[in-house]
Amino acid sequence: MAYHHLFGPVPSRRLGISLGIDLVPLKTCSYNCVYCECGTTTHLTTERRDYVGTGDVIEELRKYLRPSPHLDYITFAGSGEPTLHAGIGEIIRFLKTEFPAYRIAVLTNGSTLSDPSVRGNLMGADLVIPTLNAVSEPAFRKINRPHRDITQKAVIDGITAFARDFPGAVWLEVFIVPGINDDDGEIGLIDAAITAIKPDKVQLNTLDRPGAVAWVEPADDRTLGRIAAMITGAPVEIVGALPSRDTVASFHEEVADFILTMVRRRPATADDIVRATGLHKNEVNKYIQFLLESKQITEKRGERGAFFLPRER
After folding, report:
1. Which domain range does residue 154 map to?
2. Cα three-residue angle 45-286-113, rounded to 5 degrees
3. What is the pLDDT of residues 106-132, one digit of tens each?
4. Which residues, 6+ apart, have CB-to-CB distance to 13 below 8 Å?
5. What is the pLDDT at residue 183?
6. Domain match, 28 and 146 both
7. DSSP element (H, E) containing 307
8. Do 12 and 156 sit in the same domain of this protein?
9. 77 and 97 inside one domain
10. End-to-end CA distance of the chain
11. Helix or strand or coil: residue 295?
12. Distances (CA, A) of 197 to 117, 160, 164, 205
């Protein structure tokens, strides 16, 4: 069976071996983040509806999970903001009813948690990871480039309300963009918000693959260490390297080899690789990250974005 709404599993920096569920078309989101590895948002919206068939997603999950594959998480993520899909609560209920052994995670930018119906839809999940990149409105708008109806205060209030009532774990992602939210003043504001939200932990993250705009650079280890030391409102984890591909039964050596062969012929973008392989972009990005971290390929900026090419030996 061809899967149109599931991707992976491949190694995830934060969740180990994770099967992804993509509930919205590329690139449907309430933010247009400068660092997004999926590229520029083409449908900037806050509208909740059934962007893909809820029944279709459930049928794919039923077929995929029936053989009981090993997974650390089933994760709602993908091409945009998953909570914009009006059927996410129904899908979570299905998983908890028919496949209760699996843990469910939701990666969200947090912008919809001001809506009580969204908060209710997510109550059956085991783990929710909202993002809080900035507290000051200028930094928030420069990083996230949100829909005009979204304010940072509403985002923080929504995340706080959700964390107060949610019976599962809340890990708050703080994504650092050097030059915008890495100064002491902004980190102080973020820490105050973290203290109010009371997440189970904070995951400090930065760029590891090319973002939507060329000027975004990763924060260095010293900066991340300084920021981690400044955050006192919850335990802090600096997001590290990918888990070993040896632990992933579905890591396909031939896919990595195909990508290597492809870029040896001609430098290619992630979108070029998606078209050539037919894989979901998130899955392609994780293979690219493995090849970058294992020093088999490197990247170079071109007119169409980041191109990948073999690393010179």
Report:
1. 6-245
2. 30
3. 999 999 999 999 999 999 999 999 999
4. 205, 208, 239, 240, 241, 242
5. 94
6. yes
7. strand 305-310
8. yes
9. yes
10. 40
11. coil
12. 19, 5, 8, 18
